[in-house]
Every structure is written in structure tokens, then in C-alpha cells.
């Protein structure tokens, strides 16, 4: 019954894969827009990305629900929703980007507020899923915090989650509610082709080499390379500690080529800067 066409199919399926990150990735079925308005959807947002929320609401031709998100002097999060959401289908748009803990707490409190206000359905739209890198026990006596975040979102009262480019696909399995995993590679491929960043002297598109910053990102890089009809390279990287990467070498031909390095998370940018320096 949604009027936002999306998919959680694999990246390799060109016909069914749809980009869903940012406004350009939203495909609005305007034939069903009136029906959707009668269904009375609402958009609620915190402080993580107001510009994105504004653009989404402009595409949907609705206004964001009147919501107050503030903090007490001790740092506690307080949420108040002025508009009636009883029986409504509510989309909570909140990325858990830095400051991760603040934005995550806002998300949880907003969901709880909507649950106690008798919203019919609550969908958490999370462009960046914080703690996604803590998706497994990589050493003894360490947490799986990505699972803890999933538990918190469900306990708060979410009925569904829309996530984008999850760092680890198994995070979908951490939830007992539906999770739609969206991909943005299609949108990035269109931008690379149309923006002119990989053009020759005559303005024609020159196929770049797509580079994965590590072996774990090969699937993502391969999907982009397929859409650009590009060659693929990968960086052989080692980590001596969290946020400390050592680049060993590049596997693939990159000499004299334009290169597109594709990754899902840029934190300190250490991997990217070291990759650029590799000769």
C-alpha cells in the first residue's frame, strides 16, 4: 500500500534494484498520491538531518508534523508532538549519524512518543545506522551493539525499519520486525555519468576504475563497476587498531586512470587518504 516504490532485492538485479538514498532516489507514484493522503501519513523528524526531511516532504507535498525535540540542562531528551497522530501511519526520519548517541536517543524517544500517542503504524527511516560496525563478536568479551540498537528500536515501538546501505547485511536479521534494506549504488552511478567528473578533453564520459577500499566492500564496488562498465580494483588493507588502517598495496590496474573509491562509511577518512597515497 505504500506509494514510495522501493525494493530490498540484491544489487545484482538491474531491473528491480532501485536507489533509495536521498530525494533523487525516491520514486513517487503520483497516481496513488491522493490515496496515500487519505491514508493519512505523517512525517516526524528529529535534529539529525532537517534538510533531507524538508526535501522529502516537498516531494510528498506534505508538511512535517509539528514536533519539538529539545534537551534539559542535564542532557535528557524531551519530545513533544503538537499534532494529532492517533490512527496515523507515521514515518520517523532520523539518521543516527554523529553525535550518534544523541541522535539515537532522539529516535527512540520519538518512537515511544508516537506509540503512546496511539499512532497506527510507526516506520523508522534510518539513513545511517549507528553502531553498524559492531555487528559481531570479533574478540572475547565484546558486545554486539548493532543487535542492541535493533532491540531498542523494537522495544520503543517501531513496526518497520527502512535502512540504507547497512555496513553489514546481517543486521536485517537482528530485527523481529520487517526491515527494508535500500541501496544507493544506482543513484551514484547516474551521478558519476552525468556530473562530468569523469570526462575527457572533449567532454565525453571516460570509464573510471572503481576501487574498493578493502575486501569487505568488494560487493558494493562490483555493483557500481557493473553499472559503469568499469574495471575493478581493491586495496589490500590491515588494521592495527580501531580507526587505524595500514594500506599495503592496490590489486588491479589503476595507473593513469580516473578512480572512484566507494565505501559505505567515512569516519576519520584514514582509509581513503591512505588509499590515495598508494603508488
UniProtKB/TrEMBL annotation:
Q: Which Enzyme Commission number(s) are on file for it? A: 2.7.6.1
What SMART domains does the annotation carry?
Pribosyltran_N (SM01400)
Give the reaction(s) catalysed: D-ribose 5-phosphate + ATP = 5-phospho-alpha-D-ribose 1-diphosphate + AMP + H(+)
- Looking at the Swiss-Prot or TrEMBL record, what is one Pfam family this protein matches? Pribosyltran_N
User: What range(s) does the Ribose-phosphate pyrophosphokinase N-terminal domain occupy?
Assistant: 42-157
- SUPFAM superfamilies linked: PRTase-like
The cofactors named for this UniProt entry are: Mg(2+)
The Phosphoribosyltransferase domain extends over: 205-277
Give the GO cellular component terms, alphabetically.
cytoplasm; ribose phosphate diphosphokinase complex
* Record key words, sorted: ATP-binding, Kinase, Magnesium, Metal-binding, Nucleotide biosynthesis, Nucleotide-binding, Transferase
The Swiss-Prot or TrEMBL record annotates one GO molecular function as: magnesium ion binding
Functional pathway: Metabolic intermediate biosynthesis; 5-phospho-alpha-D-ribose 1-diphosphate biosynthesis; 5-phospho-alpha-D-ribose 1-diphosphate from D-ribose 5-phosphate (route I): step 1/1
Question: Matching CDD domains, A to Z?
Answer: PRTases_typeI
Q: Which domain of life is it from?
A: Eukaryota
Query: Its Gene Ontology biological processes?
Result: 5-phosphoribose 1-diphosphate biosynthetic process; purine nucleotide biosynthetic process
The UniProt similarity line reads: Belongs to the ribose-phosphate pyrophosphokinase family.
**Name of the featured protein:** ribose-phosphate diphosphokinase
Please tell me the species this chain comes from: Rhodosorus marinus
